[in-house]
Amino acid sequence: MDTVLSGIRSTGNLHLGNYYGALRNFIKMQDENNCYFFIADLHSLTTHPDPALLHGNVKNVLVDYLAAGIDPDKSVIYVQSDVPQVTELYLYLNMHVYMGELAKTTSFKDKARKQPENVNAGLLTYPTLMAADILMHNADKVPVGKDQEQHLEMTRRFARRFNNFYGVEYFKEPVAYNFGQDLIKIPGLDGSGKMGKSEGNCIYLSDSAKEIEKKVKRALTDAGPTEPNSVKPDYIENLFTIMRVVSTDEVIAHYEEMWNTCAMRYGDMKKQLATDIIGVTTPIRERILELEKDDDFLRKVAREGAEKARENASKTIADVRKIMGFKSF
Ligand code: TRP
């Protein structure tokens, strides 16, 4: 069985795009792999989060993932900061990571532009910390989106460099977990190509039915088609794309027909779309509401996950220290 590791940003709640883009595949992955899911709260420090909000953010993400179907009986779920060994490995790896290569990382350049008042060393060494997360468990595969591919590439380079420098074959070079056909991209409701937190166009798994109805109602439309069988503008195609994911074949065929015959009533389509989205999110939302109150369970999951992660991590640290030449008196 392969070891798969996935790091999850501890900022913001999960939305429909996360669910179809990654989460649903994560749930399947659990049965075929030895999975680790962790919440990257140390990485979140690069943007100086309010201490009063830090724990709440971690809790939200943990609750969302558990509610959506990440199963602590199948996978190891932990909070990054509960495994201090990762910071030790980060330090060792940093000694073989160079200023120049870090400074030209795309994500670093982006962040430096977005927060010029806070270009801290943690931001610069973000890829090293991510490599430490991955190499800590000697993961074979890492599910990553486009924006994280460069980081994974750097992890491979750091692993190779460490092995070469010390003349060992210790770290594996992890590859991207490819979902291929299963990867579904959910567009925004505002005509944009992607549902995303920073785009502010999300339907969250924790949204109530009312909120979802309101958001779908506000989606961009127009006066409707004037010629039969015309090509749909992007913002209309987007609504159909979401419908193809959440609705039945009959419903989709019906609205395609309405479009093609210029009998489209967007009000009806939106009502149907909202109902079908609510159908997907309601069971998840109900579990979210239950889990939020169940601190005992959350504590148990986080504690047991951290214990398993630390077990692996201590072994890696002991090996790495030995390879590097540390010895106790
Ligand atoms: N950088 C990732 C993101 O922003 C989160 C992350 C941290 C991660 N460490 C990781 C992902 C290790 C995969 C493996 O989404």
Your description of this structure?
The protein is mainly alpha-helical and 329 residues long. It is 57% helix and 7% strand. It is built from 14 helices and five strands. It has helices at 16-32, 41-44, 51-68, 85-94, 99-103, 106-114, 121-124, 126-136, 149-166, 209-217, 234-246, 249-260, 266-293, 295-324; strands spanning 3-9, 34-40, 76-79, 141-142, 175-176. The radius of gyration is 22 Å and the shape is elongated.
Please give the share of residues in helix: 55-70%
- Give the tally of β-strands: 5
General shape: elongated
Q: Please give the largest β-sheet.
A: 3 strands, parallel
Helices and strands, in N-to-C order? Answer: EHEHHEHHHHHEHEHHHHH
Mean of the pLDDT scores? 95
What is the structural class? mainly alpha
Strand order, largest beta sheet = 1-2-3
Euclidean distance between termini CA atoms: 38 Å
